[in-house]
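Students often ask why inverse folding is considered easier than folding. One informal answer: many sequences map to the same fold, so there is more than one right answer. In these notes we will look at a single instance of the problem. The structure comes first.
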């Protein structure tokens, strides 16, 4: 009889030639457990998804309660479903001026929906995106990607995409009256955590206003307390026209959203009607989980505690092999300057029961994106394991 690992390798479609193949038996709080009972401190939280940790009691209770009521009923937007309505109402209350929420299944679908919305509302054909940004792997979202390392085999993609450099003032001139929208990550993720310069982000908002282009902020990774505020754009004194959410939005369940003022969002319902539809978007069970997640973030001090936890990570991650630590709240890139050393460190940490990772456009940096529930003791342990690995490596 073949083992579960063998069946995984044979029948589950692979996305790399060397998957970690860690056989997970259960998860709870900050930890994953394999079939031997070994526990792993999860420093990446499923790439930012499990913002409250794994199987958070409040989220689990909300899921269980909704399971006892109803699951899927009809395609999104037709029935009045309490978990969707309650979530949309609470979310809109945190986003003055962005009062219409379209629920989807994932970040990539949020990107796709936002691109359609921008083209429909502005009647313009083009988009501007940042180099080394990642907005998803579906056809439209992948069209926004530059460089083309991950997309070239799938060309031709969508036309009319122009690229600028993040934090580059001169590049804002690229935005013109043919631009339907500019889509940027509030904090660049896959280039290895690059926060925005306030002056640049504010100038970007002004340039969009001048040209009539919409500003789409992708907070699929940056949102939901990750940077120390509920939304990463909050401290910069601007507001997007469309906001993208996913990952931590569902507290471990699959759900995303694109959010806009009602006057913009309403164009998807006419000429033609059903301008964007989704069967499973806003699934009631996932919406219940997302509602519980947002309530927990708003009613506790988890977000307020982020800056102190960030400082502790930065104070401890000091080593001759570390070239730089870039951070935006509980979201850090530990730059080792060498891809082979990063991979060696990831493997050593895994052996010692700590899960970390690298970045899509930056394989020289370690990714640290723990649940917001991580405590001082776990931070100290995680950092000690990383430093131990670097000391054992040849530098």
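Output (designed amino acids):
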């Amino acid at each position: 009889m073949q083992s579960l690992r063998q069946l995984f390798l044979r029948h589950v479609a692979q996305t790399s030639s060397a998957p970690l193949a860690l056989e997970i038996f259960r998860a709870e709080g900050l930890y994953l457990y394999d079939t031997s009972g070994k526990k792993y401190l999860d420093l990446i939280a499923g790439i930012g998804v499990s913002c409250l940790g794994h199987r958070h009691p409040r989220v689990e209770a909300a899921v269980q309660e909704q399971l006892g009521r109803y699951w899927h009923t009809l395609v999104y937007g037709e029935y009045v479903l309490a978990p969707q309505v309650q979530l949309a109402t609470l979310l809109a209350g945190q986003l003055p001026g962005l009062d219409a929420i379209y629920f989807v299944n994932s970040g990539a679908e949020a990107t796709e929906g936002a691109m359609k919305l921008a083209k429909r509302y502005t009647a313009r054909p083009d988009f501007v995106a940042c180099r080394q940004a990642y907005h998803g792997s579906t056809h439209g979202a992948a069209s926004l990607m530059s460089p083309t390392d991950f997309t070239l085999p799938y060309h031709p993609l969508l036309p009319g995409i122009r690229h600028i450099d993040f934090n580059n003032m001169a590049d804002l001139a690229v935005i013109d009256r043919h631009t339907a929208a500019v889509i940027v990550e509030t904090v660049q993720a896959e280039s290895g955590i690059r926060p925005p310069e306030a002056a640049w982000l504010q100038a970007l908002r002004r340039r969009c206003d001048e040209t009539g282009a919409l500003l789409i902020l992708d907070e699929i990774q940056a949102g939901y307390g990750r940077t120390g505020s509920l939304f990463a754009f909050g401290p910069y004194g601007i507001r997007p026209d469309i906001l993208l959410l996913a990952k931590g939005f569902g507290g471990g369940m699959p759900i995303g959203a694109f959010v806009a003022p009602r006057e913009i969002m309403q164009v998807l319902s006419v000429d033609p009607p059903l301008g964007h539809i989704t069967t499973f978007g806003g699934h009631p069970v996932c919406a219940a989980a997302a509602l519980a997640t947002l309530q927990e973030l708003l009613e506790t001090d988890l977000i307020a505690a982020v800056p102190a936890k960030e400082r502790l990570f930065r104070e401890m991650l000091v080593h001759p092999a570390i070239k730089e630590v870039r951070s935006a709240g509980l979201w850090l890139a530990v730059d080792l300057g060498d891809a082979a050393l990063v991979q060696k460190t990831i493997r050593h940490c895994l052996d010692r029961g700590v899960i970390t990772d690298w970045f899509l456009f930056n394989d020289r940096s370690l990714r640290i994106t723990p649940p917001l529930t991580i405590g001082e003791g776990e931070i100290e342990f995680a950092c000690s394991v990383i430093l131990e690995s670097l000391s054992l490596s040849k530098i």
